[in-house]
Each structure stands twice: as C-alpha cells, then as structure tokens.
Structures
1.
Amino acid sequence: MMRISSTQYHTTMNTALQKASYRLEDILQKMASGEKYSLPSEHPVTTVRMSRLYREEAALDQYRDNISALQSRLTQNEVYLNSMSDDMLSVRDLLVWAGDGSNTSEDVSAMAQSLQPLLDSMFYVTNSSDAEGRYIFSGTAVASPTVSYDATAPVGSRYTFTGNTEAQRVAVGPGVTQPSNVTLPEMAGMLNQLERVLTTLQTPGVNVNDPAVRADITAAMDSLDEVIESISGRIAGLGGAQNILATLETSHANVSLSNKQAALTLGQLDYSDAAVKLNGYTTAVQATQKAYAQVSKLSLFDAI
Amino acid sequence: MSIIYNALSGAMAAQAGLAATSQNVANVMTPGYTRQGVLLASLAPYQAGQLSAGSGVAVPALIRFSDGYKSLQMWSAASELGQRTTAQPYLTQLEQVMGDEASGINSGLDAFFGALNAASVDPTSSPLRQQIITAADALAQRFNSLTQVLSNQRSAIVQQRNITITQINGLSNDIAELNKQIAATQGTGVNPSALIDARDNKIDELAGLVALQVVEQADGTRSISLRGGQPLVVGGRAATMSATTNPDGSQTLQVAFASEAFILPKTGLGGELGGLEDYETKTLLPMIESIGDMAEQLATAVNAQLVAGFAPDGTPGTPLFEYDSSTAAGMLRIRPGVQGSDLAFSTSATAGGNSENLLALIALRSSTVTLPGLGVVTLSDASTQLVAKLGMDSQQNQAAMDTAQTVRNQAEESWKSTSGVNTDEEAINLMQYQQMYQANMKVIAVANELFDSTLALLG
C-alpha cells in the first residue's frame, strides 16, 4: 500500500485537466477545419497517400484544360479547311463550265476573272495566322508563311510551300500527346496549276477546244480533285481526333472523381465520431472536477 | 527526583516532535521539501539498582524521510523528458510549414509543370511562356522561404544551446556552493535538511538540461558528472562548460574542470542539450541538405534541357534557374532578365513552333533525384517523402515524450510517497505529541505533590 502525500491530489488533478484541455482543443480544431489529421505526424502514411492524390489531381486538371484548348483549336482548323474545300468546289464548277467546248474566248475570259478571287481566297486562308502572327498551317516553322508568292517567277512556279510537315504535339495525358496542327504541303502545287490555267484562259483569242488548253484544264481539275480528297481526309482526321479527346476527357474525369472520393475517405473528419469524443472528454473533465471538489474538502484539521 | 527529570525529558521530546510537525505542516506546499520526524530513544538508568526503570527519553537526531534511489529515478526521468520536450516544438513547426499543401514545394512544382503543360497547346504563345517564368519564380521563392525557415531553426538551436550552457554553469556553481555548506554543517551541527533539499532541487533542474550521474560522498556532498564521466561538480568545485563554433556552423562542447579540459562527444548527452543535438543531426541538417540537393538537381536538369534546345528566334537555349548554396534567402533564383521568348522549346533552330524540347521538359517531372536518407526518388515524389519522414520522426518523438512524461510523473509520485507531507498524518502527530506533552506535565505536577507531601511530613 503506497503512502499518498497531500499534494498528490492536486498534482493528479492538474495533470488530468491539462490532458483533457489538450484533447478538447485538438478536437475543436479538427471540427473547425474538417480534416481528420492536422499534422503529418498524426498519420504519416495517410499524408503520403493524400499528397500523391493531390499531385495526380493537379496533373489531371492541367490535362483537361489542355484538352478543351485543343478541342477549340481543332475546331478552328476544321472551319478553315471547310472554307478552303468550299472554295475548291466552286473552282471545280467553274472549270467544268469553262471546259464546255461551246464557250467563246470572251466567255472563258469572264470565267477566269471569277476564278481569281477564289484563288486569292484560298491563298489567304492557307496563310491564316493566330493573334500573335504565327502561321497555323506551316507545321513547326510558324514564323514563315505556309505558301509564298513570288511575282517575278514564271507562271506555274510562283507559289512555293515554305512551311514544314512536322506536327505540334500537345500533352493530353500522362505520356499521351495529340497533334494540334494540320500541314498543307499540297496547296502550293495546286495553286500553281490553277494560276497556269487562269493565265491560259485569260489569253486573248483562246480556243477551248485547243488540245493544249484542254490539257491545262484537265491537269488543273485532276490536281484539284486530289487536293479536295486530301483536305476531306484531313477534316475526317480532325473529327477522329475530337473523338479521341472526348474519350480521354471522360477517362480523366472519372479518375479525378475517384481520386476526390479517395481523398475524402482518407482525410475528412468523421463528425459523428468527433462529436461523441467531444462529449466523452467533456464528461471526463466534469467528473474529475466534481471528484476533486469532494476530495479536497477532506482534512483532519477541520475535525480537531 | 528521577520522576521529574523523566517527565521533563518527555516534555522536551514532545516539544521537539511538535516542532518537527509544525515544520512539516508549514512546508506542505514547498516543492522538493523532505518531511522530517523525531527519532525517540529511551535512556538507560543512571543509577544502579533493580528498581530503576530508566532515565527518560532522548532525541538523538531528526529523521529525514528520503530514499536516495527514488531521487536518482526522478533525475533520470527528468533528463529523458527534457530531451524529448526540447526537440518537439522544432519538429512541430517544421511539420506545419512543410506539410501545408497550399504553400509547400509540392504545389509549387505542380504549378511549374502545369504551366509547361499548358504551353504545349501553343508553344509560341507569349502569355503562356510568361506564365512559365512566373511559375518558375514562384517555385524558387518557395524553396528559398523553406530554406530560410530551416536556417532560422538552426540559429535558434545555437542560441538555445548557449543559454542552456549558461544555465548549466550557473546550476553547477550553485550545487558546488551548497555542497560546501552541507559539508560545513557536519562540523557546526546545524540541521542540513533544508540545504540538502535546495541542492537536490538544483540537481533536478540540472538533470533536465543534461543527463547526469550522481554519487553521494561520505561527507554529505554529492559529486555530479556527465553520462560519459566528465565531472561537473566535485565537492565544492564546479566545472565550466563552453561551446565553440566550427567553420561549418556546428558547435563543439567542452567541459573545463580545474586544469583539465574534456571535449564532449556529439551524441549521448541527454537532457535538453541531447535533444537539441539529436534534432540538429538527425532531422534538421539532413533536411537542409535534401532541400538544397533537390533545388540544385532541379535547376541543373531544367537548365541542361533548355540549353539543348533552341528559342523561337533560332538562338540556342539559355538557362532558366540559378542555384547558389551560399545564401539562404536567394538559394534558387530565375536568371535575371530572362523572358518568355528566351525559353528554348524547340529542337531545331529553324522550326520555331517545334515543341519536342518542351515535351522533354515536361517529362523531367518523373526524372529522379538522389537525396540523403531517402536515396533515389522521382522529382514529383521527393517532397512528399521528405514530409512523410519528418512526420514519422515527429510521431516517434511524441510517443517517446508521452512515455517520458508518464515515467517522470510516476517517479515524482513515488518520491512524494516517501518524502511528501500528508497533512492528515501531521494532524495525528500533532494530537499525539500534544497529549504526550500534557501527560508529562501532569507527571511533573504529581511529582511536585509528592515532594510537597514529603516536606509537609518534616513540618
């Protein structure tokens, strides 16, 4: 049986109250912040897990931003390509009309005049640039125009392709990239053919039934057909790319949702548990205080 | 006549008992007070003869209720507690700074790589490039502010160590002085109990500062030495502890006693000094080195990748980061005057829109760095693992601290059980000695009446 000194009661009470206040303060802080763990030392392994989840979330957010920026860029490309395709179909109609043997040279000269603005339109759209002046269809050589025009060269070689065919790749997933640009190396060749046929049709006294003229018109139409097909192929490719991006976006969204749920499970305070603990600690403090009040009244000096 | 002398001795013994009890009751709240009692011994008869019962009671000495072993336990518990308690505030502060998601290095790295990622949509865009420069600058600032916190902690440790050494020297001197006084009382016959209590209190304080070995000497003095045997107090003489700063910023401690000087070992000191040493060598310095290494390896990798590429205007790439280990506030910086148009994302001098180098920069996120204590980790995971290790160190220290507190509480309780004052007990003693006094007075009265009766006979 151990002997108890008078100050032992007070020391015990002090220690108990201090421990209880510490626990109460801790629970109150956690309830205010909603987090189960305020410091890494409370659960180091969970801290590591949550930190890694946050890193993945940050990366996914960026990928999703990139995907939506890329989607608008691809849509823009598609709009330009559609405009070019429309122009090319109009040119084709004109050439078919011009190839009719019953046309006079004045007729075809007038047709050729309607051909020029279409040619210019296609040239300008091919050389589209963004807000900072970088050419969209030049591949990675964005400082130089896609197609350059040299008026001093002979007709049929005035348009040259001055871009390249390299792809600009955008990161849309971990280790996953998607090209964001379309390159148009075939436009220069086709524009040269069209300029040649335009010049031919505008020469005074041209006869449509002349085999040389016919050959020019046919060559131009063949070139046009090839390019229309390749542009249509590109537009289809853009559509395919949009589908891939939509799939990736859905996949990222799902992973992100599951990450967020995991983070909640790991790190969010269980309020019902906390409320029960708070109750428990408060009761313990009250009981200790009442017991102390009783015990400290006892003293033999009151009796003698 | 021996009746009167017996009763007188009884009354005086009762008075001595009452005095001791009053001293105990007066000191019930005094910390470190050891209760005292009277030792009563009955005296053998002076006169020869079968009918002589005895010559009363004597108080040869006062009893001091103390158990030397319990004191030793208290002191060793104080050292352990001091060691754990000192390191904890530093650990908690570092945890709070490094573990904060919003302001830590991890979210800075996220922002930097996020900006690089965003630029891959349009590598030639000026606003996106500027965002990268801004994110790089913000990342450098986070490294710097963390390094500043670590550096401040190191200064604080040096200060705290110096203060602790001053306290140790002060306490050693006080203990030596008290030792002298206690030894002197053996000659003068004064009760040394209060002096012993004062000295033991000082030893307790000292034990919290550094781990001690205490040996009781025959003359009542206590000799104190460190765990490694270096003397702090011998009899009435005290040693002096001092710290010298080495060129690398660490401190070497030494103890000078008489004409000898002892260099103290780095580990195993115990108490506050040991706690500071533990924290500095096991947690703080490796962390400083890790953060510095991480910053250096990040800067080197990014710069090397940039220099291998070409800016949009075709010029070869230039570095983005500068690493300077000599200052804490400017350890990692972006190169002054760097602009978005300097960033070399292209792998070809002629194709300004090429983003292959940019994609290589983005891939640096999963490149590896080598950190002390962790080994090879990926750049994106390095800070997480450093925080986790810190968390585990802190958790261990907290658990050890709780244990040390419990052990100390129990040691104190045990000490009080022997030496503490119980007022109920003293009240009983008070009653008993009072009754003893009254009974002895009554005996004197009766003896007086007997004497008067005898005188009356003679007329």
2.
Amino acid sequence: MRFMILVKANKDSEAGVMPSTEILTEMGKFNEELVKAGVLLAGEGLHPSSKGARVRCEGLKRTVIDGLPSPKPRNCWPGSGCCRSSRRKRPSSGSSAAPSRRARSRSARCSKPPTSVIR
Amino acid sequence: MRFMMLMIPHGYETAAPGTMPEDREAMAAMMAYNESLQKAGVLISCDGLHPPSMGARVSFPGRKPKVVDGPFAEVKEVLGGYWVIDVASRAEAIEWATRCPGGENEVIEVRQIQELEDFSPDLQAVAESFPSMQTVKK
C-alpha cells in the first residue's frame, strides 16, 4: 500500500520563510529514518502558493488564476512524502514520529482566489 | 524545473470510502492526457488518491501526535490526485495543466518543487549532511 503524507502550509511557509537549521536537521533525521526503514518513495517541499497558479476547469473553458498576492495561508501543501507501508496503522512509527511544531499542525484555511485571468 | 500539479475535485471532500472513478470516457481522456505527458518526456509520476474518508490526519498539539480518522468535516478542498512534471518553465507547467481533461468544477493547483539549490548555503549544508537522502533524486 502506498500513502501520501501531505504537510499543510502555515503562515511562515506561505511567506517564503525558510525553516531554521534546527528544524531542518530534525526533519532530515525523520526523512532518513523513513529511508532506512525502506518506506520512503519520494519527499519534496513546495515553493509558496503565491508563486504558483491555479487552473479551473469549466467544460472546455480553462481559467488561469495566477498566484495569490495575499500573505494569508491557504489550504495548500508546502510538502509531501510518499511512503510504502504494509499496514495503515503504525502506532509507534511512521508519521506520528514526524518532527513538527504546533504552528505547522494547524489546518490553514483557504482564502478566496483573486480575480481570474482568462486565457 | 519540477512542478506538482495538484488536482482538487470539489465534492471529493465528502466522498464515501471506496469511491472510485466510474466514467469510462473521462477515464480514457485522462489516460490519454497522462500518455501525452509521458510521450513529451515531462512526466515523472502521477497518482490518484483515495478519498479523505479513508485517510487520517496527524496533528501535534503540545508536540504530541494526535491521530484523527477521516472524513474531516471542516475541510473545504481536498486533493484527489497529482502529477509531478519536469518542464522548462512555470508557463509550460501551467500550459500542461490547461490541457488536462478536467471535469466541471475541478481545479488544478500548479506548484514548483523546491530544489536543493533554492535553499540558502547553510540550509543546503544541513540537507547535504543526510547522505542517504541524496538518493531521492528527480
């Protein structure tokens, strides 16, 4: 069974603030544990959603919404990891061992996208 | 440049466990699109995700893991699937997203993946201190 572990954005990640070396070291150790356990398939971080875009599908029409000028956190994903596991519940290992700060654990709410640009 | 195209199907947040695509035509159109990404040499990976009602959320109040099983009533947008592509520019990534045979009210979020060289030199040094992680390459 493959699972995707999605790390939600927070105010800092959306503002483009890079993690401290301490947090990065902790996260590196966690990722290394996943590698050593042979369960990690891939793990990436994402640039803030203000650098991204959204494409809305309505019939054959495609609307491109370019970036997000607001610094408010959106319902988006600054990072993800793909794991392979034989069991869904892993009480003593897996994602519950992820180093995380309280701020990171909060669900970021999506603010309304800006005016769309129609191509 | 690597990008993630995140498929956000509105309504999927309330989908019952085990919900799978049923529209044969839509499936064929999506597979043809995936094949076009592959033939263009830009596709790294793509997958569909089971609904959040089959998932779980792990939060860390007080730095202690707390597991909550799906579905998640407060969530308005969920991920239904994703593609990772390697293209020459952001515009090219958006162009590929517009070609997707998405259904009504589906949205694709296009986000650039952070490469090692995007980090400051001191953070790059931290990342490089985990040699086993260097095997996870594009």
